[in-house]
Amino acid sequence: MDQVGMGNAVQERKGALTQGEVLPRPASSQSEGFKQGRTVLNSLLSGAFAGAVAKTAVAPLDRTKIIFQVSSNRFSAKEAYRLIYRTYLKDGFFSLWRGNSATMVRVIPYAAIQFCAHEQYKRILGQYYGFQGKALPPVPRLLAGSMAGTTAATITYPLDMVRARMAVTPKEMYSNILHVFVRISREEGLKTIYRGFTPTILGVVPYAGLSFFTYETLKKVHAEHTGRSQPYSYERLAFGACAGLIGQSASYPLDVVRRRMQTAGVTGHTYGTILGTMREIVAEEGVIRGLYKGLSMNWVKGPIAVGISFMTFDLSQILLRKFQQLGYNVR
Predict the structure, then answer these.
(1) Quick check: 293 and 259 in contact, CB under 8 A?
(2) How confident is the model over 61-82, as pLDDT tens digits?
(3) pTM
């Protein structure tokens, strides 16, 4: 074939491609995309399971803490125990988990998004700072946690409002989650669903940032000192407990403010702004008894919940990877 004929053949081939034929993607590109999608799915599933297990374990303590946070009654361990016992006698054992269905509706997507987002932010920041596949430096490590918490809180905030309302009201007031949305929208307006959003985000940034930062740092230090890349389960639980203690202590006053603003419609108060709410709480109850009300209970509940959450997430991730590896070997 002469050069003109060869040129025509090439042009015809190009024309055929542009008219609808698609060149196959390289196998490595397809494999990388599949691997990334599987990693995201694993993170979502593990995060959802971790959040559900952790919150269910501490639900009675969490409900008691919220009731004290939104009232002007003085908190003490004795009063908390009395409240739990009275609730048990009046409404039965399972009433201690009232509002937990709303908690699950919020926590499952929240934890799934938060853990998944954290893994993705770690990957993105690792690529940016040149630490891909390795432990991030301190500042990016803190940033990844804060961004993950902010992402999850923004998406799931209305469900957090519903949980707070169901936790502090008698069961006759709201029959189910949908009923809460309908009544709030009709009686207080749609904007009420995002009341308390600003203090939530201001609290989530240090809470999520410090929690993930502490947990990742402790795992890094542990690996350096023991030579084991994977801590034992009880070590993960302890690292998570430390992370929860530090994170929740740093952001607790904003958590109180958030709860007051969320439940203002059913407690008879009219909280408008973050500073206004803080001033009113301090004026009525004082700094420690007001803004840090229930913190001692949080020092029990928080480390347990966060420890269980981090441990469950890590172990679920390891288990899912083993199952997938087993599937490949069978094939």
Answers:
(1) no
(2) 877 877 776 776 777 777 777 8
(3) 0.73
